[in-house]
Specification:
Blueprint: E1 2-9, E2 14-21, H1 29-39, E3 47-52, H2 60-75, E4 80-85, H3 87-99, E5 105-107, H4 110-117
């Protein structure tokens, strides 16, 4: 079962998202709709902080959804994206990212990721 939250903060021009659990593809359909809605509230050059430390993706269908998330982020002209992920999932995400040139950085904790997004 997947758990998620998504929130755009226009004052920071940042999208905060959290994905956790071991999802089935049908559980993430509402997530994609909410993601699109929230990222549309931000300006080009926005930043994205993805908290995915407890996310356990399995199967090609989930990988396709992750690709859709990356594509929507790129289409929104995000300037920076940071992920807080476990090392095993980081390798999988990096492989997907390289497939279509999506740039992001992986971090061990939220403070490091936010410092990167804030340019510190």
């Amino acid at each position: 079962m997947a758990e998620y939250s998504i929130k755009a903060v226009p004052e920071q021009n940042r999208l905060f998202l959290t994905l956790a659990g071991k999802p089935q593809a049908h559980e993430l359909a509402p997530f994609l709709l909410k993601f699109k809605e929230e990222i549309s509230r931000l300006q080009p050059g926005c930043t994205v902080l993805a908290m995915m430390k407890d996310f356990k993706p399995v199967g090609r269908d989930i990988q396709m959804i992750v690709r859709q998330i990356m594509l929507m982020t790129a289409e929104a002209n995000a300037s920076k994206s940071a992920r807080v992920v476990n090392p095993l999932f980081a390798m999988q995400l990096d492989r997907i990212s390289r497939e279509f040139g999506y740039e992001t950085r992986n971090f061990d904790n939220k403070d490091e990721a936010e410092a990167y997004l804030d340019g510190k």
